[in-house]
Design goal:
Length: 194
């Protein structure tokens, strides 16, 4: 029904953004990767979307790229993976990293995403392995990760560990020093909040 919405981002929440176009604000559920990518843009943005309808809910899901939306659509085809869990998976790692993990059958890495158990990770690998290989995503040709700063990657990693966006941003801002690696920032932020 909707392919994309073009407009200005007026609100950014923990798991959603509001895009205003023609005087109407559309709330789109998005991944943390999409928030990171879209929050860097100024002016008009183009957000790809998918309308998911259940008997008790209609929700719009937004994506920073066609490849993120394609991965979302492939995830929700898997038994036991609904739109919210698919968004959680896309928040846990970039599309490129997810495709690589599926190609390597790295169930352990997928299980580290909050809300994804071992059985769900195994189903994801089983269902997507052929699709990822057929699309050439394992070579990094079809999908690309968004350009995200080290600080934003640290914030997203902390959110995957259960921090909310404000707590994660605050912790990273307090501990980050020039030249620190991603791992150093994450460990320092965890120690800071301990």
């Amino acid at each position: 029904m909707y392919d994309y919405i073009k407009g200005k981002i007026t609100e950014i929440y923990e798991n959603s953004v509001v895009v205003e176009t023609c005087g109407v604000g559309y709330e789109l559920n998005v991944s943390t990767m999409a928030i990171a990518e879209l929050s860097q843009k100024t002016g008009e943005v183009k957000v790809y979307c998918k309308l998911c309808v259940r008997e008790d809910d209609m929700s719009l899901f937004g994506f920073y790229s066609k490849s993120e939306r394609k991965m979302f659509l492939q995830l929700i085809e898997i038994s036991g993976v609904g739109p919210k869990l698919a968004l959680t998976v896309l928040s846990g790692m970039s599309v490129e990293s997810l495709a690589a993990a599926v190609a390597r059958a790295d169930v352990k890495l997928l299980s580290k995403i909050k809300g994804v158990g071992k059985k769900t990770a195994e189903r994801i690998v089983l269902e997507l392995k052929d699709k990822v290989e057929a699309s050439g995503a394992t070579d990094g040709v079809v999908v690309t990760a968004p350009t995200v700063s080290v600080n934003e990657e640290a914030v997203m990693a902390l959110m995957t560990l259960g921090y909310n966006r404000a707590e994660a941003s605050d912790a990273v801002a307090r501990v980050q020093k020039e030249g620190m690696t991603l791992e150093q920032i994450i460990f320092s932020a965890i120690k800071y909040n301990a």
